[in-house]
Amino acid sequence: MKEPSSMDVSEIRDKKFLLEKSISEQLHQFEDETGLPVSSIEFVRRECTNEFGMVVSICYAVESKVEI
Asked: What is the pTM of this model?
C-alpha cells in the first residue's frame, strides 16, 4: 500500500473518483442482473493480525441491503 503522504491531492482525487466509479458500476450490474434495487451499502475496515498482533493485511466487511 502506498503511503498517503507520497500522493498529491490530485492523485488522491483521481483514485477516489475511480473507486466511486467502480462501486457504482458494480451496483448497476447487480441491479441489471437481478432487477432489485440496492438501498444501502455499509462497510467496516478491519486489520487482520497474526498471533503476535502484527497487522498482516487489511480487509473490508461489506453488507448491502436489498429489498426483495
From this structure: 0.75
